[in-house]
């Protein structure tokens, strides 16, 4: 049960990952101070998980905020990802070293394949490289992002290390029930990016009615729904008020009926790219 902001889930390799984290997508290099400020605010609010990626171009700011937070490194869970142009065995090995250097950290807690791209190099080769750096202790856990069942089946047919996490778009309009069940059956923890659908969910009538009843914001209700469905969640915000609000998820629980009312909002509607179409759109 997720009882507090310090609650963690044990991944399939025994590493413990916070249920709640801060996402920093869209923070540009020139926004470095804003990214650092957001991470500092989140850590002050009790967050102990920060999610970035090589493609976000802000690993440096994230690393500085973590290093200068005053919180012991082992208490903060840092995730980053292999960018699409870095697929392939040798390029992934280089990308991992580059990310660790950019972050200024001795290791990364979780390294993900960002997208299941296999045009010039297969994601299986990328995974083999992640298995190597995992064995070397450069990363504490490895996983994937935006993998559908077919991608996972391809990977699991050849891998030595089962992914610890699959980070996907997940919210009440995109519940991905089959994927979630498949991941559970394989011991892969599902993690939600875009849990608030970039704010597009927040005027949903069901959420507005529930908000009045619970005395909680629509965002808090959705994030609590994630946790009660067993999904790690990483809402993105640079707004200090929202960062604190998004962390205030632990003094209440949604009823089983209200969980189901949110479950049935599913429309298979995406706010980001579809992993099944992404490879066709990706330009090298």
Supply database-style keywords.
284 residues; alpha/beta; TIM Barrel; eight-stranded parallel sheet; two-stranded antiparallel sheet; 11 helices; Diketogulonate reductase-like aldo/keto reductase
CATH architecture annotation name: Alpha-Beta Barrel
CATH superfamily: NADP-dependent oxidoreductase domain
Question: What is the terminal-to-terminal distance?
Answer: 43 Å
What portion of residues belong to β-strands?
A: 5-15%
Separate helix tally = 11
Overview of the molecule:
This protein is α/β, with parallel strands linked by helices. It has one domain: NADP-dependent oxidoreductase domain (TIM Barrel). It has helices at 32-44, 59-67, 89-103, 123-136, 149-156, 177-186, 205-214, 218-228, 240-247, 256-263, 275-281; strands spanning 8-10, 16-18, 22-23, 49-51, 77-82, 110-113, 142-145, 165-169, 189-193, 232-233. The strands form two sheets. The protein has an eight-stranded parallel β-sheet. A two-stranded antiparallel ribbon has the order 1-2. It is globular, with a radius of gyration of 18 Å. The mean pLDDT is 94.
In short:
By secondary structure, the protein is α/β, with parallel strands linked by helices. The chain has helices spanning 32-44, 59-67, 89-103, 123-136, 149-156, 177-186, 205-214, 218-228, 240-247, 256-263, 275-281, and strands at 8-10, 16-18, 22-23, 49-51, 77-82, 110-113, 142-145, 165-169, 189-193, 232-233.
């Amino acid at each position: 049960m997720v009882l507090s902001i310090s609650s963690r889930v044990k991944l399939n390799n025994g590493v413990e990952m916070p249920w709640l984290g801060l996402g920093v997508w869209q923070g540009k290099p020139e926004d470095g101070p804003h990214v650092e400020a957001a991470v500092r605010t989140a850590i002050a609010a009790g967050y102990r998980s920060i999610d970035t990626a090589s493609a976000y171009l802000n690993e440096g700011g994230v690393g500085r905020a973590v290093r200068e937070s005053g919180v012991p490194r082992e208490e903060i869970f840092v995730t980053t990802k292999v960018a699409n142009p870095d697929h392939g065995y040798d390029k992934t090995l280089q990308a991992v070293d580059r990310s660790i250097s950019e972050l200024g950290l001795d290791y990364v807690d979780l390294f993900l394949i960002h997208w299941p791209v296999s045009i010039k190099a297969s994601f299986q080769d990328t995974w083999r490289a992640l298995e190597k750096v995992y064995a070397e202790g450069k990363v504490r856990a490895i996983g994937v992002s935006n993998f559908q069942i077919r991608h996972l089946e391809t990977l699991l047919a050849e891998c030595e290390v089962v992914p610890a996490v699959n980070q996907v778009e997940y919210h009440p309009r995109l519940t991905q029930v089959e994927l979630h069940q498949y991941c559970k059956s394989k011991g892969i923890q599902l993690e939600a990016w875009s849990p608030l659908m970039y704010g597009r969910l927040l005027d949903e009538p069901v959420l507005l009615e529930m908000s009045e009843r619970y005395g909680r914001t629509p965002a808090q209700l959705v994030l609590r729904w994630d946790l009660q469905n067993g999904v790690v969640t990483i809402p993105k915000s640079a707004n200090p008020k929202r960062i604190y609000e998004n962390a205030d998820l632990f003094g209440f629980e949604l009823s089983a009926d209200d969980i189901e009312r949110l479950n049935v909002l599913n429309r298979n509607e995406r706010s980001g790219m579809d992993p099944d179409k992404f490879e066709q759109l990706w330009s090298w």
